[in-house]
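Write out this protein's structure.
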Amino acid sequence: MEDVVRPVVVIGGAVLLALILVWLTDRALRRIDAAHPETPLWGLLRRCRMPLQVTLCAALLGGSFDHAGLTSVKKHAAGVGQALTLVLIAAAAWLVVRAAAAIVESSYSRYAAGARDAARVRRVRTQVTLIQRVVTAVVIIVAAASMLLTFPEMRAVGTSMLASAGLLGIVAGVAAQSTLGNLFAGLQIAFGDMVRIGDTVVVDGEWGTVEEITLTFLTVRTWDERRITMPVSYFTGKPFENWSRGGAQMTGTVLFHLDHSAPVEKMRQRLLEILQACPEWDGRSWSLVVTDTTPSTIVVRALATARDSDTLWTVRCEVRERMLEWLQAEHAYALPRISTAPAPLGTPAFGRGGEPGARSAQG
């Protein structure tokens, strides 16, 4: 009877104790979160319940399984202990990643709630995102290395690898030159404030919004919902347009090709009326001038401002549509047209040889 009860008590007790401890921790976090709603950290830490359960179970079972009295466990004690150690390392790494993510997200949420500068908020968001990715990568590497070092064979391999670390470092540096370049470029972008998540950029003639930044690549979502993925080293080695840097306010133009008789002064008054009726216009500036002329047309440039690139696009389309409707309805003569006229009488006809001569008998 003891052979059955003892394993159940030891193993079941370890699992039950882990569940109780996790339940008490979760209950305490819930109460603290209810008492301090202004701090989201405690509610975010509740996401660590699952990795905490696995970590506690692996730790308690690792310290008590050899007291369970099971013959099969005693025969394979080394293997069971090895497996529990691997699970413990993996669960601990999972727990650290979850906790770090909760801390970073809480810090960013509190900062974003109290900040008024949208550009600075995007900068901090980019930095904390990359910091979180770096922490995750470091934890995973350390956990993987720790798991490998639990095997006696890998310890010997590790010693020999350390002996030739200089050569391996050179080979790895040459082989991973592009990857390391992107890695350092990602850190440069994060802390150099070159581009941030949410910025409006123009790269290779494509206009879009920065949607994701990692340590190796950057994703731009275009206006037609396409995703352009490129290495982060592109933004440190080539010029690009960042419409959000230095403020989101922008100035846009609309060009009209019209007849020389176009009423420019009336168009200027009409432009002001259109802008005053457009809610997207920020009221900072506007103008309408003739910027060029050709033998058949003139080029009229309308200028307007908006608070960001998206609203500026709306303002430009509104000005273009309303102005053309007004010209067609009240000043149709101002629209460009092709003038034709009959050839003057008495124009000499040309023969086959290209010399002036008399017209043919038929003509």
